Amino acid sequence: MSAPSRTNSFLLHDVLVIVMSVSVAAILVQTEVLANILASTQGLEFLGSFIAGLFFTSVFTTAPAIVTLGEIAEVNSILLVALFGAVGAVIGDLVIFRFVRDRFAEHVLELLRHRHLAKRVGMLLKLKLFRWLSFFVGGLIIASPFPDELGISLFGFSKIKMSWFILLSFSFNFIGIVLIGLVAQAV
Asked: What is the pLDDT of residues 33-42, one digit of tens each?
């Protein structure tokens, strides 16, 4: 397969994945399935934290998950909510990581091969400093209420091992959920 044809194939694949994700998210929101799933866990706060953690990771389900985690943390131990929520978030991140890990970096590098600055940018991407910076920024994104897809993509640049990814995903999601709980209790 020629380079332009392969690049078009990468882009088509990525666009199809995004369209499918948006479609599924729209169906979940329109049919209120997500709201019903999260509401059905009332009385089972830690199961609710786990399920909300699963949804905490995606661009399309972050907002309802944040609200749910905040509501659960208002009346329960923030640390337990963060513990169960982070476990759910790790599972959600692993699903995303499985699909995104190397693909994003591979696609960006493929696109850069067609530019005059490609050699300079390619050298930049190979620097250890860039890998550590992408690792650090990716972790901050995972800890924030922002969706994890971008952070996981940045982890793909740093070529992180699965065991480290799990540990970091848990740690950063735990911190993010603790902060959500603290804000929820303060408000």
From this structure: 766 666 666 6
The 10 Å Cβ neighbour count of residue 125 is 15
Prediction pTM value: 0.68
Round to whole Å and give the CA distance between 72 and 154.
30
| CA–CA gap between residue 25 and residue 27 (Å, rounded) | 5
- DSSP letter for each residue of 99-122: HHTTHHHHHHHHHHTTSTTHHHHH
Contact 149, 104 (CB under 8 A): no
User: What span, in angstroms and rounded, lies between the C-alpha atoms of 185 and 137?
Assistant: 27
145: DSSP letter:
S
Rounded to whole angstroms, the Cα distance separating 169 from 101 reads: 13
* pLDDT at res. 170: 94
CA angle 185, 73, 75 (to 5 degrees): 80
Helices 162-186/62-75 angle, 10° precision: 60
- Per-residue pLDDT band for 174 (boundaries 50, 70, 90) equals very high
Contact 73, 81 (CB under 8 A): yes
What is the SS3 assignment for 159? coil
